[in-house]
Design goal:
Distance between the termini: 44 Å
Number of domains: 1
Strand order of the largest sheet: 1-2-3-4
CATH topology: Nuclear Transport Factor 2, Chain: A
Largest sheet: 4 strands, antiparallel
Strand content: 15-25%
CATH architecture: Roll
Helix content: 40-55%
Oligomer: single chain
Radius of gyration: 17 Å
CATH class: Alpha Beta
Structural class: alpha+beta
């Protein structure tokens, strides 16, 4: 019986549905960053745009807004820099790798080619929608 459980777990881990979910997560985060970086490049503050809420978990959004209103954000929460080459970054946004663990689906992102920046987005599902729970700088 134990061997059957292991086989079932392996089949689920390598099933097409599992990979489709990972692909969806990567596409979702890429879509978010295309919007986010475009807003920032146009000198619009993406943190105050209503669209942000559709990409971020409710709890993370509340915490982020609290920190923003208290002026406690020194470096951009999502891209982890203060300045960037918007032309390079807008053309070069890539989801490099997607890993699912019991806590979240981690999407490894790269922005730019000239001076690339790397972050990892932790995604969870709220209902049937991917949402960003947190972002980590990996440099």
């Amino acid at each position: 019986m134990k061997n059957n459980s292991i086989i079932l777990m392996l089949l689920l881990a390598f099933s097409p549905a599992s990979h489709a979910t990972n692909s969806d997560a990567g596409q979702y985060v890429t879509s978010f960053y295309k919007w986010y970086i475009k807003e920032a490049a146009e000198l619009k503050n993406p943190l105050v745009q209503p669209e942000l809420k559709k990409y971020v978990t409710d709890e993370s959004y509340k915490q982020l807004m609290k920190a923003y209103k208290a002026d406690e954000i020194d470096v951009d929460y999502f891209i982890k820099v203060q300045d960037f080459d918007d032309q390079d970054w807008l053309k070069n946004i890539a989801a490099d790798k997607v890993i699912t663990d019991p806590v979240c689906t981690q999407v490894y992102m790269t922005f730019g080619k000239i001076n690339p920046k790397h972050v990892v987005d932790c995604l969870v599902k709220e209902g049937n929608t991917w949402k960003i729970k947190s972002v980590t700088d990996i440099e």
